[in-house]
Amino acid sequence: MIKLITKLWPVFIPIVLYFVWFLFFRKKKDKNSQLSKTEERVWIITLVASIAVVFAYIIFILVTTEGGMVGEYTPAEFKGGKVVPAKIR
Length: 89
Known about the structure:
Layout: H1 2-8, H2 12-26, H3 37-40, H4 42-64, E1 73-74, E2 77-79, E3 82-84, E4 87-88
Antiparallel strand pairs: 1-4, 2-3
């Protein structure tokens, strides 16, 4: 789970920026005033920005990492009443 979060943390950047913006400008906003078109669509904008960041990050990972696995995978086994962990040789 931690590995997934560390790889996908960039997706949360636009969402966090939106909440910071929302908290900052909410105080300045009059309670009776109407929302502008941009403010009404802010969740769509945030979602599109998050998806764009995810795609950019996935492309970055694909370009900068080496593909393929080196070695042979041996799955975990149950021997003598104990579990022998999996190995890559």
